[in-house]
Specification:
Chain lengths: 198, 198
C-alpha cells in the first residue's frame, strides 16, 4: 500500500470485500493495524465470530512476561446480562453494556512486592497484543479499569485471591470503520523521543 | 497465506526479497508479526536503518494510555559505548552490549498512588506496540528491566525525578530470522481462557 497516504483504507481490508469478514480470518498489515487501533466505545449489533474472538485471546496468550510467568487469566464474556452488569463496575465502563464481547484480565496476588508493577507491565503487553489482533480483524476495542472488585467477583465467579484488573470491550464500530489514523492525538514525536541521551 | 502451516515463512516477508529490507518499510501481516515475535538476545552486526527505528518509536508514541496521559519518554541509544554501559544496569541486560540499538522507557514519579500500577500497564502497551512494529520489519527485540537507577541516570542524563523503567534491545537475529512460531512456550489456551465465567 501507499504509505504516503496513511488515511487510505486499502481495498479488501476492513471494508467489505468479496469474502465476508465474519467467515475469513484475513487481516491487514501490521503497520496498518498499529495506526488504525483506536478506542471504540460504541458498537454495531453485528456479532463477532467465535473464531475471531479466539484469535484475539490467542494473541494475549502468546505475549511475553517476566520470566515467562504468564500470571494472567482471561475471561471471555459474550452474554448480554453479564456484559450489562460489568458495565457498572467502573465509572468508565459504561460501553461494556453495548459491546458484543468483553475480555476480563484477571491477576493473582503478587507473590512479592516487585511483581506489583511487573505484573501490570505484562498485562499491558498482553492487552496491546489483543487490541492489535482485534484491529487486524476490523474489531473495535475499548479497555477499562475495574473499580468494584466485589461486584466483578460476584458477576464472574472469580476466587477471592484474584483481582479483575482490566476489561477489554469488543465490537464492530457503530460509527466509522477502523482505518489508519494520520495524526493521532499524542505528544509530538520529537518531544517523546530523545536521541542518544535525555 | 496458508494459516494451516504457521511455520512457513512467506516469500518476500522477512526473508530477503528483490527489494533490500533496509531500504523498504514493507512489513508483514499483523497475525504473522504477533506469532513471530520472540525474545531475541543475540544480534547480527547488521545496522538498523534510522527510518526503521523511528517507525518502532512511532508505534510506541501512538499507544493508548489512561486518560491519554502518555507519561513516557523514549531514549533511543545507538552508540556502542552507552549500549555497553547499559548492559550492566541489570543482571538480565547483558544482551544490550551487542544490540544495534536500545530504546529506554522513562517514567516520571507517579502523581498519585493509583498511577504506580496504571503507568506500568501503559508502558506495557507501548512496549508491545514497539515489539510488534520491530517484528514487522524483521528486527529482533529483547526487553529488560533496570536495576541500577543511579547508573542509568548517569549514562543517559535523565533527571533525578525520572525512572528508567525498561529497556528494549533491538537488532537482527544472529541465529534464525523471525518467523511465525507454531507452538510457543505458554500455558495451554484452555487453561488461560475461561468462557462466560471463572
Amino acid at each position: 500500500m501507499d504509505l504516503s497516504s496513511p488515511d487510505a483504507v486499502p481495498q479488501g481490508y476492513w471494508t467489505a470485500g468479496p469474502e465476508p469478514r465474519a467467515t475469513s480470518l484475513r487481516g491487514v498489515e501490521t503497520w496498518d493495524a498499529i495506526r488504525a487501533r483506536r478506542n471504540v466505545r460504541s458498537y454495531s449489533d453485528r456479532t463477532i465470530d467465535p473464531e475471531h474472538l479466539d484469535r484475539v485471546l490467542e494473541a494475549g496468550r502468546r505475549s511475553p512476561s517476566a520470566s515467562n510467568r504468564q500470571k494472567w487469566d482471561f475471561i471471555l464474556v459474550t452474554d448480554r446480562a453479564p456484559l450489562q452488569e460489568l458495565s457498572t463496575v467502573w465509572v468508565g465502563a459504561a460501553h461494556l453494556a453495548v459491546a458484543q464481547a468483553a475480555i476480563v484480565l484477571v491477576l493473582p496476588e503478587p507473590e512479592a512486592e516487585r511483581y506489583v508493577t511487573i505484573d501490570q507491565y505484562d498485562l499491558g503487553q498482553a492487552t496491546m497484543a489483543m487490541l492489535l489482533a482485534a484491529t487486524d480483524l476490523g474489531i473495535g476495542s475499548g479497555h477499562s479499569a475495574v473499580g468494584d472488585q466485589e461486584a466483578c467477583r460476584r458477576i464472574l465467579g472469580t476466587p477471592a485471591d484474584r483481582t479483575c484488573a482490566y476489561m477489554i470491550a469488543l465490537g464492530y464500530p457503530a460509527d466509522r470503520p477502523l482505518a489508519p489514523i494520520a495524526n493521532p492525538d499524542r505528544r509530538p514525536f520529537d518531544e517523546v523521543v530523545h536521541r542518544g541521551r535525555w
